[in-house]
Amino acid sequence: MKFIGFEKDLGNDFSGTGWALTELVKIFFNLEYIIFYSFIDSISKERESIDKLFCFIGEIDSAISVASLKAGNPLVCTPVFSQEKRLLADELVHPLIENCVSNNVDLDGKSMLLTGSNMSGKTTFIRTVAINALLAQTLNVVFATKYTAPFFKIYTSIRITDDLLDDTSYYLEEVNTIKQLIDASEDKTPCLFILDEIFKGTNTVERISGGKAILSYLNKRNHFVFVSTHDIELTELLEKEGYALYHFTEQVTNYDLDFDHKLKMGPLTTRNAIKILELHDYPKDIIAEAERVVKTL
């Protein structure tokens, strides 16, 4: 390679004359081609060694990254994988949230139906479960003090948007996404299904009826389903279908909403949507009308 590129250092007329003579020799004997292909041939002979070296450096780099992750986060543990349909996690936190409130999960043979007020942490919690399950199965690290679960195939339906270019509405996009989860549920391998506000792109009656049917269908074999919803009606429909009921809630203090982000057993018994409108200075007529309508529904 030095022979091929030596002329880049030439800078005077005498050197230029020498370069011209050298070029004539190289052209006459095809020296550059011979040297280049000889170089390629020597590299090809070491392909296996180069591949091994590449993989070795990658493993070392990954190990250092995981070790740094563990050293910088005291609240981590090594996961335990079992064959039972049980998911146990103590002091589980989201790795990307500073000062994250920890929660305990213990689902023995059941899935979770999670209700909660707006901004209470429903979506963040089910994402926490999915992220830690993924970290457990890839880096062998969980952001908790204890974690025991089967080895999952992980499927999610959380962030869905419509697509104008594909002429697909929000609801149709959600239908296609959930259909993939339904197909995956036929697999005998345990799956972890994470769903946020199922079918929120359609009307209330069909959302509840369709959601109930799908969630019952997914919760079979050794699969786990974590679903968040505002539809309190689903709690009564799914409690007998192998779903444990949990919720997040809030307290109103000094004309403000205070969230503790702690997971609680049972269905949600409070609502805060109209209260949030009031706290953001919506006209009193709107608040009064909304509260009146709620009492009639």
**Cα radius of gyration in angstroms:** 30 Å
Give the integer mean of the pLDDT values: 86
User: What's the story with the biggest beta sheet?
Assistant: 6 strands, mixed
Instruction: Count helical runs.
Output: 9
Q: What is the CATH architecture assignment of the largest domain?
A: 3-Layer(aba) Sandwich
Number of strands: 12
Shape: elongated
Instruction: Write out the strand line-up for the largest beta sheet, numbering strands in chain order.
Output: 6-7-8-4-9-12
The CATH class assignment of the largest domain is: Alpha Beta
Order of helices and strands: HHHEEEEHEEHEHEHEEEEHH
What is the SS-derived class?
alpha/beta
Reported by name, the CATH topology of the largest domain is: Rossmann fold
Uncertain regions spanning at least 5 consecutive residues: none
Distance from first to last alpha carbon = 82 Å
Proportion of residues in β-strands? 15-25%
What count of domains describes the coordinates?
Answer: 2
Helix content: 40-55%
CATH homologous superfamily title of the largest domain: P-loop containing nucleotide triphosphate hydrolases
